[in-house]
Amino acid sequence: xxxxxxxxxxxxxxxxxxxxxxxxxxxxxxxxxxxxxxxxxxxxxxxxxxxxxxxxxxxxxxxxxxxxxxxxxxxxxxxxxxxxxxxxxxxxxxxxxxxxx
Length: 101
Description:
By secondary structure, this protein is mainly alpha-helical. Helix content is 47%, strand content 10%. The protein has one domain. The strands form 2 sheets. The chain has a two-stranded antiparallel ribbon.
């Protein structure tokens, strides 16, 4: 998890804000990858809060950070469908959404 956050931080620090608009396709990619990787669908707001406007990020890195946050100790699979773990965070961003599989 620490490594993923470092990668996100590094990609954010070497990039520059272009126009202050978050690319909806990046949000969609992060959501799709998170569902494929861990069965968790983060809300649009959660993903948008993790992706700074105009910043170039790798959707798979953001999705993996979300998955790591929602399955502490690999327990995500033991949670009932439609429930999220309590107080899952990536950095200071609260991860909200639901398990879809």
